[in-house]
Design goal:
Blueprint (H helix, E strand, L loop, with lengths): L19 H11 L7 H19 L9 H17 L9 E4 L15 E4 L2 H21 L6 H29 L9 H24 L10 H17 L1 H5 L5 H16 L10 H19 L2 E2 L5 E2 L3 H8 L4 H18 L4 H7 L15 H11 L5 H4 L3 H10 L3 H37 L1
Antiparallel strand pairs: 1-2, 3-4
Helix pairs in contact: 1-2, 2-3, 3-4, 4-5, 5-6, 7-9, 7-10, 9-10, 12-14
Length: 432
């Protein structure tokens, strides 16, 4: 899988400024409680310390580094609503985030200095969005948690840039630095949103289907996700208030689509299909429950009994039907990439042993079981292909799968019995 690299927005740089003295003078001249400076001096010092820490935290690329910036933003927002704008005598100077590229912008300013808490607030808000993009870019996109964190922070960053686009000019009321230009903010919002969508695509398509067409790890991950969904719904499956038909619908609508998502391109093996059937039978046994034997005691239902009671296409049958449906589209898509890929043949010497079957090999084998040997030719005509698929159901495929797995189980049972007999015979010989 190609490596996905996310772009991060650089943060704005602020100059150090003394906010303690101006705020102390402001409080002492406008409020009656200024007679006792000890009541507010400590709070002002804490605010100054918080600002310095928040400005340095933008260098960290961890999600907990945002907490201090959030806290400082809340304090500035609160001060902005309590202090008249004309009384603010604190020169807040912020440099352009793209200061190395300012020369590329027409009339680009390197920095702007304003005595305004509102200006300080929007600059801090810009840094929050930039910091979120940096944290998203630092995530490991090969893990589910990393993908979730990256998508979350990119969406939040896009929303902040979009909000700044409509509010920044009301605050600055002059030509802004290039990073705060509404057009730049709109571009940054679109970029963050596009990257969030890319992360969603990566999460949807991520898999361990390697160059040898091995879908083992991918199916393992799907079964794990399906297990999580199953155990989340286990109270419903155990409930006696729901009918069996309702529980079957829960399985077919909520659980089965998780494991079969994008299964059309799998080149699964008999072992993979057996694991899928094992999981499905586990859920069916939960839905139908045990049976009563002649002694009126509970007894586990056999696979054959489950197949008779369920009386619907099993999960492997659904998988193969999607293979065949997708194959019809691929064979009709001549001169397109998806069609040309299926025609590609390796130009290197393959290693010793039988090569792993490709997706097209599995599809043709399944069509042969249905009595169709010229599927690629039939698929050229969509109407004929549809009629053929209606006539040739996948029941035969399901029966073939069940017979194979039943025969495999019998062979394993016979081998186990033979091994136990060999051990018993060997021990008897040693005793003699």
């Amino acid at each position: 899988m190609a490596t996905t690299t996310l772009l991060a927005v650089p943060t704005k740089r602020a100059s150090e400024v003394n906010i303690v003295k101006p705020l102390r003078n402001l409080i002492s001249s406008h409020y009656n409680s200024a007679d006792n400076p000890e009541d507010y001096t400590e709070a002002i010092n804490e605010l100054s310390k918080l600002r310095n820490q928040a400005l340095w935290k933008v260098l960290d690329k961890y999600d907990n580094s945002l907490e201090l910036i959030y806290t400082y933003y809340d304090q500035i927002t609160s001060l902005e609503s309590k202090v008249p704008p004309s009384e603010v005598q604190i020169p807040f100077k912020w440099k352009d985030a793209f200061n190395k590229m300012t020369s590329f912008f027409a009339n680009g300013k390197v920095s702007i200095t304003l005595c305004s808490f509102a200006y300080e607030r929007i600059c801090v808000l810009f840094n929050i969005a930039a910091q979120q993009s940096a944290i998203a870019a630092a995530q490991n996109l090969e893990t589910d948690d990393g993908l979730k964190m990256a998508a979350k922070f990119l969406q939040q960053s896009a929303g902040i840039f979009n909000t700044l686009k409509t509010t920044v000019m009301n605050v600055i009321q002059q030509d802004p630095t290039p990073d705060l230009n509404p057009d730049t903010l709109a571009m940054l919002s679109s970029l963050m949103l596009a990257q969030a969508q890319e992360v969603f695509i990566v999460k949807a398509n991520i898999g361990d289907i390697n160059q040898q067409a091995n879908s083992y790890e991918e199916i393992n991950r799907r079964i794990t996700a399906e297990n999580k969904c199953y155990f989340a719904l286990i109270p419903l499956f155990k409930s006696k208030l729901l009918s069996r038909n309702t529980k079957l619908r829960l399985y077919k609508v909520l659980i089965r689509p998780i494991v079969l998502y994008a299964c059309e391109a799998w080149a699964s093996t008999k072992s993979d299909e057996k694991r899928l059937l094992l999981f499905e039978r586990k859920i069916l046994r939960r839905i139908y429950g045990p049976k009563r034997n002649e002694e009126n005691t509970s007894e586990r239902r056999t696979n054959a009994e489950l197949r008779i009671i369920f009386n619907e296409t099993n999960i492997v049958g659904i998988l193969k039907s999607r293979w065949i449906s997708w194959a019809g589209y691929v064979w009709r898509a001549e001169c397109q990439i998806v069609h040309n890929i299926t025609l590609w043949k390796p130009d290197k010497k393959h290693p010793r042993g039988r090569p792993r079957q490709r997706w097209s090999d599995r599809v043709r084998d399944d069509l042969k079981l249905m009595g169709i040997r010229d599927g690629e030719r039939l698929a050229k005509n969509r109407e004929v292909w549809r009629d053929k698929m209606k006539d040739q159901t996948i029941a035969k495929l399901c029966a073939q799968c069940e017979e194979y797995y039943a025969e495999t189980a019998k062979m394993m049972e016979r081998e186990t019995v033979m091994m136990s007999l060999d051990k018993e015979w060997t021990s008897n010989v040693n005793i003699l």
